[in-house]
Amino acid sequence: MFRIGIIGTENSHAMAFSKILNLPDEHTGKILYPDARVVAVYGPDKEPAELVAKEAKVDCIVNSPEELIGKVDAVMLTSRKGSVHYGYAMPLIEKGIPMFIDKPFTIKPEEARALIAAAKKNGVPLTGGSGCKLAYDTLLLRNTVRDLKAKGEMITGCINFPADPDDGNDGFFFYASHLTEMALTVFGYDIRSVMAFEKNKSRVVVCRYDDYDVTFNYTKDDHTYTAVIYAKSGNTVRYIDISLIYWHEVEHFIHMLRTGEMYQPYEELIKPVFVINAIEESVKTGREVAVEN
Question: Was domain 2-130+245-262 assigned CATH 3.40.640.10?
């Protein structure tokens, strides 16, 4: 049995993951993963932690992330603010505990690098980020782009998802990970640079690749997620359904625990941190900014 701890009960993800793992599936009436269970939770605020524990039948509420050491075999870090992820995650990674680290992985490149360096040193598998990259429509668009590139027919593309530069949870970083990870999945992680423009709190970002440029549209008040692929053979328009992403995230996490196999290499897992930081710099400076590797 994999004993799982959750850090960050202020996020709705904590409740969703705990229910998927601890409660019978509403369709089959069976526990989806009999070999895994959320046994402990931590949240900086008492009330959300108690609510998750009550509704998802979690036995234990701990007073600090460090209290999970010795009580759990793996951790899902779901705290809303990426700025706290490094401090919560590092002591657990150093103890060899596999982790799911929610979006945004961190908000500082140096912290992202330090976490994966520690994970590599201690042989710790990691997964996480935005579940939107796992949506069926996102993967279908990825396959479309791969096919068009192989045929030499790819021209350009665009994709949108909301993000708010003034969000109370670390601003642009909080929701920007969703679009960034979806777009990198579809168009590739080999992005070279970005040029960002902001108006009415929405951002249009021209992203430069070796073979094409594409546009990421962080549309603050638009909650319809759409991608358009432009190709010599014709255009593809697809609306993106993200309704099942929590189940996909848990599935990949449990697979990692069972096999040790990571869904993405470490470098891909943290690449969105560099892209978002480059966008932030471009908005501030008005210049094209190279994306760090």
Answer: no
